Amino acid sequence: MNAVTPSGGEQSLGPTARRMILGSQLRRMREDAGITRQEAGYSIRGSESKISRLELGRVGFKERDVADLLTMYGMTDPAERQQFLDMVKESNEPGWWRRYGDLMPSWFNDLVGLEEAAARIQVWEPLYVTGLLQTEDYARAIMSHGRKDMVNEQIDRRVALRMRRQKMLSRPDAPRLWLVLDESVLHRPIGDREVLKGQIDYLLEMIQQPNISVQILPFDRSGYSADSAFSLLRFAEEELPNIAYTEYLTGAHYIDKRDEIERYSRALDMLAVDAETPDRSRQMLMKRRAEI
User: Fold this and answer.
1) Tell me: the pLDDT tens digits for 108-158?
2) Average pLDDT of span 269-274
3) SS3 letters for 180-243?
């Protein structure tokens, strides 16, 4: 019984993605051995729900638990076991975002890790420029609700976190980012005129990168395919499922059911058809920039 190591792009995999890959391998080994989640949970002094969380990569792994499960599932080869347990250690290493842990709600941690591992990130944004393409001033205006007197050290650190997230777009193995942006975003007065102008300038700069595309959805075609923002993350590693991410006021949903992913994918396809082409969208950005 062989463990499958992460394929292509392993260097960029963060702890979140590694946990998901290892979890899927544990699930496959358990099913091949004909063992139920309840039986597996009992063997590590846990519950069926604990095994479910482990297999989904939602929690960190304890080496002792994984070693016991490998024995139960029939993985006895010392070299294979050590390789698997080494990967468990790597999955428990903190990501760069750990130093911002006091600022990040628990539901946001996984998004940062998944972004780092994604091969393609598709985003629909009807209200703001997506965080991955925001300027510092634009992000600060959003986080302070447009009130400069509310800017403090915590907000500055949150802005720094957002800027750090963007660094992955300049990696040699950077993910492909495709953004569909509602035209209203170009007119929404975030900050002041200079802040909005600077944000549009930044978009024009970033779309020159080969891995970044922006399409603008005009006013007269807005809102029909999806009425709220979401992201769709796709991965090169076959062990990782495509994931849709949506936020609400106090949390977020991570969606990986195949039929639901298909609906999000179709919505993005429809938005892309309705939106202007990347070249025409660039012209719209330049025109709006001149109007401000």
Assistant:
1) 877 888 898 899 999 999 999 999 999 999 999 999 988 887 889 999 999
2) 95
3) EEEHHHHCCCCCCHHHHHHHHHHHHHHCCCCCEEEEEECHHHCCCCCCCCEEEEECCCCCCCCE
The dihedral region occupied by 54, where left means phi > 0, alpha psi between -120 and 50, and beta the remainder, is alpha
DSSP helix/strand/coil, 176: strand
Pair of tokens at residue 270: 């429809």
Q: Please state, in angstroms and rounded to a whole number, the distance separating the CA atoms of residues 189 and 2.
A: 56
Taking a C-beta distance cutoff of 8 angstroms, is the pair 37, 48 a contact? yes
Question: Which single residue is written with the structure tokens 């993910």?
Answer: 175
What single string gives the DSSP state of each residue in 117-174?
Answer: H-SEEEEEESSS--GGG--HHHHHHHHTTT-GGG--HHHHHHHHHHHHHHGGGGSTTP
pLDDT in tens, 22-66: 988 999 999 999 999 999 999 999 999 999 989 888 788 999 999
Q: Considering the entire predicted model, what is its pTM?
A: 0.80
How many other C-beta atoms lie within 10 A of the C-beta of residue 8?
11
In this structure, are residues 217 and 180 in contact, taking their beta carbons and an 8 Å threshold? yes
Token pair belonging to 246: 């949506």
Contact criterion met (CB below 8 Å) for 69 and 40: yes
Q: Which two tokens stand for residue 243?
A: 């994931």
